[in-house]
Amino acid sequence: MIAAVAFAATAGGLVAGLLGVGGGIVLVPALDLALGAAGVDREVSLHIAVATSMATIIPTAISSSRAHASRNAVDFPVVKRWTAPIVIGALVGALAAAHVNGKVLAAVFGVVALLSALKMLLPLDGVVLRSSLPGGVGGALLPAFIGGISAMMGIGGGTLSVPTMTLCGEPVHKAVGTAALLGLWIALPATVGYLIAQLPDGAVVPPLTIGHVSLIGLALVAPITWLVAPFGARLAHSMDRRKLSAAFGAFLMIVAVRMLYRALS
Fold first, then answer.
1. Residue 210 — φ and ψ, nearest 5°?
2. Is 60 exceeded by the pLDDT of residue 22?
3. In angstroms, what CA-CA distances link 166 with 106, 107, 189?
4. Residue 194 contacts by C-beta under 8 Å, 6 or more apart in sequence?
5. Domain of 251?
6. Alpha-carbon distance 263 to 265, whole Å?
7. pTM (two decimals)
């Protein structure tokens, strides 16, 4: 379990820096497998994986966003506009996730991963639907939705916010950096929600688990992702984005199929 979690943390940290996705899209499936192999009840293993992944995103998002900010790749006006609704959405999403069946979480994760995979695999990098992000009520509901779904998936939001921003005219590197900082404002309230939510009585869980968050998993993952994320951020500015997106899209497709199978089995 330790080896699997350490490998997942390394991959998650690199992905967090490369794509601004918080690494949770990699960590959640890996933690779910590791927890199941360690004897944790299948009915709650995904809940713990999601909550623990969300907690690890806090240091990862700080590390990754600082690296992107040093390259002037964070759109702070967008962060200012999106912070309040994204915080509310994340808290609501975490509290809702704590009370739904594991199959529902797997279905949400699988559907979003599938859509994200298609976005990355198809040649849509140059597609722009509008010249700027929406304002008004729609401009507030959009980040709230991103925060809520991201909290239910245990991800930092970049999986949803990067495509959203690029479709609205934001340059891809700045969208990635902005998503990294927004991931912090998703992870903080969502982690609070998971810490105060209780698991079912009698469920077999790892020792030192508070609410839905495994402190052992957090202690293993957080230092590795903190150290690795800046390397991913540096690589993001030197690699071909099309090849990177295609490779990550293929990985997401595998993750999506597994999660949808878990939801339907």
1. -110, 120
2. no
3. 27, 26, 26
4. 50, 51, 54, 55, 94, 97, 98, 211, 212, 213
5. 2-264
6. 6
7. 0.83
Structural contact between residues 187 and 57, judged by C-beta atoms closer than 8 angstroms: yes
Tell me, rounded to whole angstroms, the distance of Cα 151 from its chain centroid.
8
Res. 31: pLDDT tops 90: no
Q: What local confidence, expressed as pLDDT, does residue 20 receive?
A: 57
Domain count, the chain: 1
Which residues pair with residue 209 across a beta bridge? 214
Closest CA to 179 of 124, 217, 133: 133
Select from 258, 255, 249 the least CA-distant residue to 124. Answer: 249
Structure tokens at 4: 């699997």
> Given pLDDT bands bounded at 50, 70 and 90, which one contains residue 77?
very high
Helix crossing, 24-37 with 215-236: angle to 10°?
150
